[in-house]
Every structure is written in structure tokens, then in C-alpha cells.
Amino acid sequence: MVAVTETLQTINQLAGTGYKFGFETDIEMDVAPKGLNEKIIRLISEKKREPDWLLEWRLKSYRAWLSMEEPAWARIVHPKIEYQELHYYAAPKGPAPKSLADVDPELLNMYDKLGIPLNERAALAGVAIDAVFDSVSVATTFRESLAKVGVIFCSMSEAVREHPELVRRFLGSVVPAGDNYYAALNSAVFSDGSFVFVPRGVRCPMELSTYFRINARNTGQFERTLIIAEEGASVSYLEGCTAPMRDENQLHAAVVELVALDEASIKYSTVQNWYPGDAQGNGGIYNFVTKRGACRGRKSKISWTQVETGSAITWKYPSCILQGEGAVGEFYSVAVTNHFQQADTGTKMIHLAPNTTSTILSKGISAGRSSNTYRGLVRIMPRAANARNFTQCDSLLIGNHCGAHTVPYIESRNQSSKIEHEATTSKISDDQLFYCRSRGLSEEDSVGLIVNGFCRDVLKELPMEFAVEAQKLLAVSLEGSVG
Amino acid sequence: MLEIKGLRASVGAKEILTGIDLTVPDGEIHAVMGPNGAGKSTLSYILSGRDGYEVTGGAVSFDGADLLVMAPEARAAAGIFLAFQYPIELPGVGNANFIRTAVNAVRRARGETEMDTVTFLKEARNAVKALAMPDDMLKRNVNVGFSGGEKKRNEILQMTLLKPKLALLDETDSGLDIDALRIVAGGVNAARGPKFSALVITHYQRLLDYITPDRVHVLAAGRIVRSGGPELAVELEQHGYGGLEAA
Ligand SMILES: Nc1ncnc2c1ncn2[C@@H]1O[C@H](COP(=O)(O)OP(=O)(O)O)[C@@H](O)[C@H]1O
Ligand SMILES: [Mg+2]
């Protein structure tokens, strides 16, 4: 592993600036007026030339949202979000690009800067990429080679136009429009996102990946992602996210729905690096995300892996509904909070069918004055005979001013089920730091090494190409957390 | 060359080192012996830069530089290595990765090029073999689940790969059986040369049967109370440390 060396280089490059993705891109934007009302929703739908059923669905969601309230149970605090002060649509001006050649060079430049090559030849071997800039998808690579095996990988807007029957059948089938406050908001105003369909028996031949980028000011970002794996299909998908550094907070409320049919498997990985705010707690993304997978089929499998280092506030609980007999749900998570970041994250494993199993492995790292909460629900329903869950929650504290909390909810309504829960809390000890430093590692490299060790079991679940990236990110996020 | 002059140090209100004078020229191996609680580990920690000790007097120079102002990692880069009396566990951190990271950190600090993985692993495997350690030693997590003897050997493995100019071995022999002792001593003897010096802290004459020291010092109540040649170790083994404080 070269991670630590690279980490050092990254830290040196940063030289105190902290967040290396914090630049702004100067692009002419088409922005909807501020505020949220039915007119805006109609405008969004019209801009995207959507069918009536979708507009109706949006409006219904909007009305549901109006009657709902922000949830108050999470261990987070923030000033009131002024929903009427936000823009709900922003897109690069001009007609939608038809191919990479039509994409604004300034945008391609930005993705280059982020280290994301959209040029197919230059792209990471075997990774197809969809890039979402503010509200719209700007480029999807490798589409033709995927199409050859029947895999559909495109933006959500395109899927609505090209595959309306699939979208209509599955959209909102896992996360209903009125599921929760943020999901309802997303359903009303979602702009774009990725759509993946892997047909029966097909193993997707490459990693699929989406990069989300918030650029515009005072603009909410609401993507909607839908992944469907038919019988015996399998796919691995990764999302990455970054945003410019800004003093004000920005709202991000995405919804991700996964559907796995008989013996299908979906692996969904996230490297979340939205701007976390500065060391004093100014700015940063409010990340209120609903992610849920339905293991509908027999022996289907959904695996969530997340590395959460960014955002001022993270509120997300990627979940699995284990409906098919013998279905498998997994949740592997690393959540890092530093400075004034707040994370309330975890998972829900809902066992509905017999012989379903779930595994939860959560690693929380808190530094600075941050707050890091694991919140997880394991629910075993009466029909879920012989269901099993194993949960391991480990917290690592750096310094004396941060908080780590573990809030497990366990509900078992079946006598034959087996649930195991283990939790540990530890600190990086002075002995460990001194041991590393006495071998020549700087203090920051020592922290990076120890933290990466702590997270190892989760990091090894990430696709290889991204594991090294994630390790670097961990070290950089904790910059300035000791000493 | 290490030069310690009148070193005094305390923890809180307690004075632990009460005035140490000690010079270790390049190429020499010095043994430091003494009863429990004499301040041997404290001395090794202060030399390697651990926090928590207040130096209240004296000076330490290494190759002419003031050692006491340097960060621990800078001391490692300058060529100082401490084999811990109680090596520390690093869960999830692979041993090979750890040592290679350290080797390259030190090389970078010295303005040298980094060692590539292939070269490193070759050296590391040879060293593992020479120390008669199990093959999986490089894959396991640093000191996690190691037996006492394995931990001590792992310190010598790190020393071998980091190639320090001055090694501080803090009771590396305690808890080792005679075979392991021989192997560990072999590791130190292999490093011997005009550019290598060592301060070998030990309770027992036993280790010194295998590593012949140039000088032997007795540390008691925070200062060196006697110095001599290898024969001093034998004398101590026979008569114990009793009465030395007064000497
Ligand atoms: N951190 C500390 N706090 C308080 N007392 C300490 C600390 N470290 C060492 N001491 C004391 O200093 C003395 C010397 O300890 P040490 O250097 O470990 O001795 P040795 O290695 O020779 O057995 C002992 O009395 C020990 O209790
Ligand atoms: Mg000791």
C-alpha cells in the first residue's frame, strides 16, 4: 500500500487549504427563480420534457411534503433551512450534450481537476462514469459497450424519455414519495441522477460510477438514482461527490432506490466528500439522503459500502428490505467527522422473509468538536424464521472535545432469529502515536495510518480502484486533528 | 556519536534522572544495567523524544546536533531507533506496510529516494528469515496477537530494515528463551560496524554473552553510578545491584 506516502504528498500539497476540491467553475447557467411552489415544479418538469404521469407524481409528492415536518430525532443541530430561499433547478446553458464532444470544455476541465477523466480512452480501465453537475447529467461514458450486453446506464432524465415503462414501474417503489420529509422534497423537485438496468443473467462487465458535483450558489441538489438488477444479474456501482468551498450551507437531498430480483446482487459504494465547512464550522453541505434497497428476490443481495468524510451534516441510513427468502443485506460504513461536522448515520435491516441475513459493520471516527452518531435498526418480522444479524459498531475518538454515540434499535418478532451486537469505543493512544513517530512517521501520517488500520475491514469492501482514494481522503479529513 | 551531559528529568514533581553523563562513540555498543525503577526506560524515551518528561537540566547531542529540540520523527530520520520494552499494537495496520512506510518516511527526510515495494519486500523477507520469524510475520497486523518473543523480534526486524545509526534496545532480551535470545543478539551483531552504535539496556548478563559490549554502565536512582568493561556485567551478575547506589 502506498497510501501513506500519497497521503503525505496530498497533505503537503494542501498546505493548510484543507479541502482540495473547493474550486468554483465558471459556466453559464440556466437557473430557475428562487423558491418552491407548483409553478417551479411544472417548470422543472417542462424543462425536462417529462410525461404527464411524472409531473403528477411530482405534484403529489410536493403536496405530501407541504403537510410534513422536518424530522427532529437525529442528533444534529442546524439553523432553520429556508426552503424558499433556494433555487431548485440549475443547469449549464445550451442544449443538452448528445455526446462527449458536445460537452462544454470548461466542464471537462473541472472533472479533470477532480481527477475524473470523462474521456473514454483516458478513463480508468473498466469504469463507466456518469457525471452530474448541479442538477443535470453532463456525460456518461462507455454507453455503447454496456448497451451491447444489454446494460442501460444513463441519466435519469434520459431514462424517463427512453425507458419510461421501467422508470414508471420502479420509481418510488422502494422509497415512496411520502416516505420522509427529504424524500418527499426530492420526489417533487429531483433534477437528475443515474439510472441503471441490468437484465436477467447479466453480470455488468465494468464498475459503474457517478460523480456528483454541486457548483451553483444557493442551489439545492436533488438527485434521484435508480438501479435495477433482474434475476441473476449483478452490478457494482460507485458514487463520489464534491462541492466548492462556500460560507453558506447548501442543501443536498438525494434518493437512491435499488431493486434486486432473484439471485441478483447489487453493490453500492459511496465516497462522500461534499465540502464539510471550514475549521470554524462555517459553510458546508447539509446532506439529507434516503437510500434504500429492496431485496425482492430469493437469495438476492444488496451491499452498501460508504466512506463519509464530507458534509457539515450527514443524515443518511442506507437500508435493506429483505423480502426474498435467503436474501442478504450488508452495510459497511466509515464515517469521519472533524471540526464542527455532525454525522447521524447508520442503516436499517428489515427482515421480512425466512433465512435472511444481514451484516452491519460501522466505524465512526470523531475528531475536533464534531459529533458522530451511529443509528441502526434491525427488525425481524414474524415470518422471518432463522433470520440472522451481526452488528459491529466501533468508534474511534481523537482528542477530548468530540462526541461519539451508538443508538441501536433491535426488534425481533421471531424466536428462531439470532441477533448479535458488538460495540467498542477507543482512542488513538499517545503510545500508538509515539510508536509510529519514533519510526519516522510525521504526526499526521501516524494518525492516517492508525485510522486506516481502524477502518480496514470496511475499506477492503470498496472496489480496488477506489480504496486507495478513500484512504487518502481519511487522512486528509483528519488533518489538524491532533497536536 | 551520542553525548549526554548532566541530564536531569522529571515527571510531574518527581525527579527520575538525576544527572546522567554518558558518551557512546560511533561503532561502540554500550550496555546499561540497573535495578527496576532506576530510570532506564525513561532515559530511552527521552532520547527518542516521547512527550511527558520535563528535562530540567543538562544537554544531549547526537552527531553534534541538539537532540532534545527535535521531534521524534526527526530523531528517527537522524538515525535513532528505539526498540520498545513493551512494543505497541496497531490494529488493522499490516506489518510490512508499517515498516515500509517508516523506511520511506526516513529516506524522504534524508533526501533519499523511496524504496520500491519489490526491493523492500525482498529485504524484509530476508530479515524475517534471519530472525527465524514465521513467514506470515509481515502480513500480520503490527504486534497484534504477537507473543512476547515475537514482539521483541519484530522490534529487531524493524531495526534491521530501518538501519539506524544508534539503536536503543530497552530490555529486548526480557522474556526471550535462549534460542530467541541468540537470534536477537545475531540481529544486533549483524548491524555492528563503524557507523552503528547501540545502548543495550538489560537486567541480565545473559544477553551480554552474545553481544559483547565495549562498555558497561550501571544506572541506579537516576544516574550512572559505575562504568567499566564487559567484566563489570559479570561482577554484577554475581553480587547484584545491592550497595551500588552508594558507590
Ligand atoms: N510517566 C510516569 N509517571 C510517573 N512516574 C513515572 C513515569 N515514568 C516513570 N516513572 C517512574 O520513574 C522511575 C523510573 O522508571 P523507568 O524509567 O521505567 O525505570 P526502569 O526502566 O529502569 O525500570 C520509576 O520509579 C517509575 O515509577
Ligand atoms: Mg524499563
Description of the structure:
The complex is a heterodimer of chains A (483) and B (247). Chain A is an alpha/beta fold and 483 residues long. Chain A has one domain (2-477). Chain A is built from 11 helices and 23 strands. In chain A, the strands form 3 sheets. In chain A, strands 5, 6, 8, 10, 11, 13, 15, 16, 18, 20 and 22 form an 11-stranded mixed β-sheet that branches. A 10-stranded mixed β-sheet of chain A has the order 4-3-7-9-12-14-17-19-21-23. Chain A has a two-stranded antiparallel ribbon with strand order 1-2. In chain A, helix 1 crosses helix 10, helix 6 crosses helix 7 and helix 10 crosses helix 11 (464-477). The radius of gyration of chain A is 21 Å and the shape is globular. The two termini of chain A are 26 Å apart. Residues 1-17 of chain A have low confidence and may be disordered. With 247 residues, chain B is of the alpha/beta class. Chain B has one domain: P-loop containing nucleotide triphosphate hydrolases (Rossmann fold, 3-Layer(aba) Sandwich), CATH 3.40.50. In chain B, 34% of the residues lie in helices and 26% in strands. Chain B has 7 helices and 10 strands. In chain B, the strands form 2 sheets. A 6-stranded mixed β-sheet of chain B has the order 6-7-8-3-9-10, sandwiched between helices. In chain B, strands 2-1-4-5 form a 4-stranded antiparallel β-sheet, with helices on one face. In chain B, strand 7 (166-170), helix 6 and strand 8 (197-202) form a beta-alpha-beta unit. In chain B, helix 2 (72-78) packs across helix 3 (95-109). The chains are: A alpha/beta (483), B alpha/beta (247). At the A-B interface, helix 1, helix 9 and helix 10 of A face helix 2 and helix 3 of B. Bound molecules: adenosine-5'-diphosphate and magnesium ion. The site of adenosine-5'-diphosphate has 12 residues of chain B, from strand 2 and helix 1.
